[in-house]
Amino acid sequence: MAFLSALLLLLLSCCTGSQADLAYDVRPAVFVFGDSHVDSGNNNYLITSQSKANFPPNGIDFKASGGMPTGRFTNGRTIADILGEELGQPNYATPFLDPDTAGAALLNGVNYASGAGGILNKTGALYVSRLGMDLQIDYFNTSRQQLDDFVGKIEARERVNRAIFSITIGSNDFLNNYLTFISDFEPPDTFINRLMIALKAQLTRLYYLDARKVVMGSIVPIGCIPYQTSLAPVDETGCVSLPNQLAMKYNRRLRDLLSELNQLLPGANFLYANLYDLYMEIIENHQSYGFVTATDACCGDGGIHGGIVICGPATTLCGSRSEYVYWDPYHPTEAANLIVAKKLVHGDARYISPINVQQLVNI
Ligand SMILES: *[C@@H]1O[C@H](CO)[C@@H](O)[C@H](O)[C@H]1NC(C)=O
Ligand SMILES: *[C@@H]1O[C@H](CO)[C@@H](O)[C@H](O)[C@H]1NC(C)=O
Predict the structure, then answer these.
(1) Which numbered ligand comes closest to the C-alpha of 138?
(2) At 139, which CATH number?
(3) Which ligand is nearest to the CA of 204?
(4) What is the 8-class DSSP label of residue 175?
(5) Is residue 91 assigned to a domain?
């Protein structure tokens, strides 16, 4: 009897142990950086921010909140939320500024993203307060030290080495800086050079804070958002040319920068997530993906595409959210995000390179 229970204990400890190890293996933490495409509520805590989404009908399809607004700038999940789910994370990375983001919650990862934020500090100044990329990395450094205290330096480093870093930033450097009156009115190449210098320093800083697996998003087709197509003439693609051309120019430089960093920094894996082509593919073939429109905002008013007045309790709301590519004047719906995020995890080199996110996890 004693032998049997000893055996049972042995079996139990063997299997509980190995299950815990397995869970640890298949569930990397997800640290999220970026702008309103992936903000999960940081701006709720910025009192003076003019860039917020913590009111209905934002979040109307977000199951985890029962349809209540969370600060996400979409009807449901962001691409970062879906990425986390696909990687087996039981909880969405919580906002850094949420006081509950402490202790064991850090092990799932943390979200630092902020609506109106950009690569450059000045970007988004019209919206008063927001977290730019430099500040988001300062905050990650704070979490990094909290992790050291919580699990010890060795395990903290190992967890951060295995974690997936998801970065979706750069659109606001054009939409809320270069293309507005706060711009320094320099030639596009000069501006993009400045972005690359800042971004190289930022990504290198993350590397020195032990990030090794980074999924870096390209800029999305910012000329196709209802805000643009409601204001300016469109070209044969149905989108406004200049913003898309700037995005493509930036994206080519971004791809080169990531290759350079992969060469330069031993053990670094910077993936290029081709968000531009992914969303463009959906926009151009929206009917075959089951969307009725790729130009009208589901929630918003003004102009021919409802792209002038931001989504809120008093604006028009469409009936069938999953038939719209765009939720509001600036952001895609959960339905579009779902297609994009799944291709980042499982897709081929047209959309995510040099490897996909699932392969990145398995390294
Ligand atoms: C941006 O702001 C951060 C602090 O928030 C500061 O450390 C950094 O030097 C600033 N960068 C520039 C280019 O001004
Ligand atoms: C992180 O913070 C510590 C303490 O403030 C500082 O010494 C260090 O330089 C920071 N590291 C980076 C990469 O920002």
Answers:
(1) 2
(2) 3.40.50.1110
(3) 2
(4) I
(5) yes
Q: Over the stretch 200-253, which tens digit does the pLDDT of each residue have?
A: 999 999 999 999 999 999 999 999 999 999 989 999 999 999 999 999 999 999
Share of the chain above pLDDT 70, in %: 93
Specify the pLDDT at position 26.
Answer: 53
Q: Within a domain: residue 290?
A: no
Looking at residue 276, what is its pLDDT?
A: 98
Please report the atom of ligand 1 found closest to the CA of residue 198: 13
In angstroms, what is the span from residue 212 Cα to ligand 1's centroid? 23
Ligand 2: does its nearest atom lie under 6 Å from the Cβ of 205?
yes
Please say if 331 is a catalytic residue. yes
Q: Is the torsion defined by CA of 225, 227, 228, 229 positive or negative?
A: positive
* 88 in Cβ contact with 33 (< 8 Å): no
> pTM of whole model > 0.90?
yes
36 classed as catalytic: yes
With respect to residue 166, please indicate whether it lies within any of the assigned structural domains.
yes
Domain hosting 41: range is 27-276
175: CA distance to ligand 1 center in Å? 20
pLDDT tens digit string along 297-340? 999 999 899 999 999 999 999 999 999 999 999 999 999 999 99
Q: Is residue 353 annotated as part of the catalytic site, yes or no?
A: no
Q: Is 61 left (phi over 0), alpha (psi -120 to 50) or beta?
A: alpha
Identify the three-state secondary structure at position 213: strand
Which value, to the nearest 10 degrees, does the dihedral of the CA atoms of residues 77, 81, 85, 87 take? 150
Query: Among 51, 81, 331, 348, which one carries the catalytic annotation?
Result: 331
Q: Is the distance from CB of 272 to CB of 256 less than 8 angstroms?
A: no
For ligand 2, what atom is nearest to the CA of residue 138? 14
- As for how many domains the chain has, the answer is 1
The answer to the question of residue 44 being in a domain is: yes
pLDDT one-digit tens code per residue, 6-22? 444 444 444 443 344 44
